[in-house]
Every structure is written in structure tokens, then in C-alpha cells.
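Quarterly update, task 2.4: zinc ion-bound model.
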Amino acid sequence: MKSRLIITLLLLSAAVGGATAALAQDKGSVDPKPLPPLANPYDPKLGAKELFGRKVLPAAMPTRVVGFYAHGCIAGAEALPINGDTWQVMRLSRNRNWAHPQMVALLERLSAKAHKDAGWPGILVGDMSQPRGGPMITGHASHQVGLDADVWLTPMPNRRLSREEREEMSAVMMVRPDRLDVDPQVFTPGHLAVIRDAALEPSVERIFVNAAIKKALCREARGDRSWLSRIRPMYGHDYHFHIRIKCPPGSGECESQPEPAASEGCKPADLAFWFKDSVIHPKPPKEPPKPRPPMTMAQLPAACRQVLAAPDAKQ
Ligand SMILES: [Zn+2]
């Protein structure tokens, strides 16, 4: 129970600091500098992110999800190919287009549905996980076990993007400057269709969007509205939405999250917290928060040491 409390605190602090947002608008480089070798990779105080961030390929092990979305790792991850008929992967320099095979299949399926239901040429996929999951050097408290993926709220253009464009192109901000609703100039019925298609995938546990987007979905959804219960307001997520799937069957070491309540979460009281002035315009803290020591290998599930130590999978 103690570890769950720590995870919750970590998630909350990261969320408040904006670190759980994938920051789709953060740019990358077509010529990323490899991380320098670690002077002392066995230092017990070393952040696990330094070790996982240096792995370029998945572990040569059967697929295995270990731990919790914000506290774990994955073996046997699969890459989402960087180009499909109806999708393209963005920010290739981050090498975060890895996930559990179920998530890879879901994204491929979702991209075809986005094409059909929203008329989009396809979807742009942002961060998934690192080749072996684990904590990341930049951004995201979650995305550690190959069961989280970010999809841009910008339709894929009708052409193959260049390497430069994939690093430099910005996603479109969906939320109005006053943060109280979506910007009707950019948020379209197509966006609702793509988010609904994602939420209707049976393996989906939650979809995170900005509260203004949830409010718009609540207002505009017609017909079956049961999927709205899986749409959860979260800080950030105004340029992209975040898909989280359940622990795949047979993943005994994977820790799931309780199912969200069955209600739509569309009542004014359900959303009131997110539109409070203190949440929309948080006061800067009087003292800058002390940087938290990074999660070490000892704090991750023990099996993640095996995942880290395993040889590279053959590509
Ligand atoms: Zn995300």
C-alpha cells in the first residue's frame, strides 16, 4: 500500500508540474546526440531513467509487463512502424514508439477508424514508451509499461512528413485562451469521432484529455454515451490525448488501475474542480519546489533489473 501512496504522490506532483503532459509541442532534432556513457552505472542513487533512457532496443525476452503505468518496465515491446497507410509517428529522435503488441495493434486499428469515421487521412502518434519502458529522462511520469500512448489532436496531413517536420511541426492547441472551453475554430466533430473510437476499444482503461475537451465531448456526444465514463480530465492534454489500456490478460506482474466510475462524469459538479480559478491559473509557489530525487532501480519492481540487463532483441 505504501508503494501505491508514493506512486500517487509522484503522479500528482508530476501532473501539477505539467510533467505528465507529453508536450507534443516540444521539438526534437533530426540529429540527436547520443547520451554520454555513465561514469558509474552501478551507483545505487542513479536515477533508473538514466539506465532505461540509454536502451535503444527492447529486451530479448518474451513479452512481459512489470509494475504500474508510472512505476515499471516492459520486456518484448514492439515498435509501431513509423509509417502506415493511416498513421505516422512523430518525434522519431525520442525513440518512444514502443509498446505492448496490444497497444501497437490498437493504434493501427484506431488510425483506420479515424480515416473512416472522421475523414482524417490518418493520425499522428506521439510518445508511447521507451524500448524497455521505465522512467524517462524528459516528460511523462507514466508511459513506463508499454500500455500508454499519446495521439495528436492534429489530423495527419495527406502526405508523408519529412524527418525535419516530424521533429519541428507543432500540434494544434484545442483549448480557448481562457481555458474554459475548446476553440470552436479548431475542435471539430472529427476530433470527437476519433476520441470516441479510441474510448470504445474494449482494452481501453482511460483516455486523458484536457477538462475543456471533456466538457465539449459531454455537450456534443450523441447516441451511445457510455464511452464518456472512460474520458478523464487531466492537466495538459490540450494538444494531444492519451490512451491507456488495461493490463493484458496473463500479465500477472502488471498492476492495473481501478475501473473508472460508470457515470459519464459530465455533470457540472464533476468538472467544477478543473475550472476553478486556482486550477486554471495556479499561483506560483512561494519557494521553488525542491527537486525530487529520481526513482532508482531499487525502487522499481525487481524484475525490471532483469529486463534492463537482458541482451538486445534482434530486429
Ligand atoms: Zn501521455
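Highlight for this quarter: The two ends are 39 Å apart (CA to CA).
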